[in-house]
Amino acid sequence: MPSYDYDLFVIGGGSGGVRAARISGGHGARVACAEEYRYGGTCVIRGCIPKKLLIYAAHFSHDFEDAAAYGWNVPEPTFDWSRLIAAKDKEIDRLNAIYERLLDGAGVKAYHGRATILDGNTIEVDGERVTAEKILIACGGTPSLPVLPGIEHAITSNEALNLTRLPERIVIVGGGYIAVEFANIFHGLGAKVTELYRGEQILRGFDDDVRNALAEEIAKQGIDLRVGVNVTAIEKRGEALVLSLTDGTTLECDEVMYATGRHPNTDGLGLDTVGVELAANGAIKVDDFSRTNVDNIFAIGDVTDRINLTPVAIMEGHAFADTVFGGAPRKPDHSDVASAVFSQPPIGTVGLTEPQARERHGEVDIYRARFRPLKHTLTGREETTLVKLIVEPESERVVGVHMMGADAPEIVQLAGVALKCNATKAQFDATVGIHPTSAEEFVTLREKVAPQQAVAAE
Length: 458
What we know:
This protein has helices at 15-26, 41-46, 48-67, 81-105, 157-160, 177-188, 208-221, 271-274, 310-324, 354-361, 376-379, 408-420, 425-429; strands at residues 6-11, 31-35, 109-112, 115-119, 122-125, 128-137, 141-143, 169-173, 192-197, 224-227, 231-237, 240-245, 250-253, 255-258, 262-264, 297-299, 339-341, 347-351, 365-371, 385-392, 397-404, 448-449. The strands form five sheets. Strands 1, 2, 3, 4, 5, 6 and 16 form a seven-stranded mixed sheet that branches. A six-stranded antiparallel sheet has the order 17-18-21-20-19-22, sandwiched between helices. The protein is α/β, with parallel strands linked by helices. The longest helix has 25 residues, at 81-105.
């Protein structure tokens, strides 16, 4: 029997890799983990957590405006970008330290440096070579930038979280959830925001009713949303950037941020050395148990490009550890994974979109409502809420839940539990609502709507 330094070596110290390392260590495995930047990965260091903190900050501008309608005399507020970033950085430092303590508490050896695979059982970290019986790759993804003149002047979400100053004018290029969220962040903090998307509507892959409704809300707020438009070149003119657009116009700004997708972070890992099979976009191909085509090498999280969400990576990492070291084989379950867009208003969604449901089940029943929430009957704000249920008529099972409105992610999280339990429309109907809430609309929807019927605010 060959002797190895470790039973498991994890490459990548994000949420998925840390969970896999900790649980494997708890099962008695000798584990090491390497991270080339900071432990916590994309989510903790430059993704979910810092972004959500900035979203909270941006929402205060609405709160200050709305307070007057409820009798509050609020002095003219001022905003200090540097204070926000310093507070955000302090919290990220705290979380980074927690992640390292968690690994230490599980007996995991933490390496700080870039790891590369030299052969099927040998890994090098900053010049040090170690061996492991099994290797788990969990090094996530990284923002993609297109090739065009002047792209060196653009930033991505990584840099946007650490700007030294708040730009007065910023252009966000992209139509996915990252682009939409940052457009709302910068707008809420006082910047003039233009969002450009080359497609016909933002949030491709989300339910069409939700996509269209959010686009309306974004425009109401004053974000200049332009679809069917892209950038062909970026030119630096003094302190400003000038963008040439596909419609023949130009656009001047102080910063341009690209959120046009991410790609798996597999370059330079040495995967070609051991023959790990990759997809065309660089994602590591794995089976249902996160195994690659090389027997002792596994991969989880965004680097596999399955569902690129932090809780999914954590689920995959835990399932891997239980399967390989815990004696309890199980596959990660990728069905009915709830997700959110922390826009203004936010979106929560779980299950199938209407087109997906029709493709899978044929005819489906649609229940939907759009209304002004109670809060804004006093504020006068024109913001609306949208709720939607998609039902498979033969079984009456609810197969899709979608919401745009305040607290939508919090509400839809528990709707995800209902879908996991195969809840039916009759069971939704039999549930007594909490009044007055927007969430109660999900259990009071009674009338089906025609699929081609336009969504209109009531």
